[in-house]
C-alpha cells in the first residue's frame, strides 16, 4: 500500500548533483515498473536550489497516469525497477529534466527534486 499523505521534500545541502540521484524512501512490494511501461503515480516536484514546489499531483487531488517514454529522461531512468507501494526520491540534473538554461521551458537549467509514489503499473 503506497503512502497516503503528501510527502515533505527535504532541502538538500551542498551543490546540486550532476547525475541522476535515486533514493528509495519506501520500498514497495507490488508489481515493478518497467522501462517503456505506464505508471500511475502521485508526485511532488521542487526546485533543488530554492526548495520551492513547482508541481504536485497531490494538490490536484488525483494521481497522474503516464507512459514512461513520454516523461523527462530522469523519470524514464529513475522509475523502472521501482515497485508499487514504493516512494522514491529522484534528484534530476537539467540535462535529464528540461534541458539547459534557455531551452524554452520555465524549469530549463534547473536541477529538480521529485518524490514519487508508485500507485500502479500497466
UniProtKB/TrEMBL annotation:
Pfam families: FKBP_C. Its EC number is 5.2.1.8. It catalyses: [protein]-peptidylproline (omega=180) = [protein]-peptidylproline (omega=0). Gene3D superfamilies: 3.10.50.40. Residues 36-122 form the PPIase FKBP-type domain. Keywords: Isomerase, Rotamase. GO terms for molecular function: peptidyl-prolyl cis-trans isomerase activity. Coiled coil: none annotated. It comes from the Bacteria. PANTHER family: 39 KDA FK506-BINDING NUCLEAR PROTEIN, FKBP-TYPE PEPTIDYL-PROLYL CIS-TRANS ISOMERASE FKPA. Belongs to the FKBP-type PPIase family. This is Peptidyl-prolyl cis-trans isomerase.
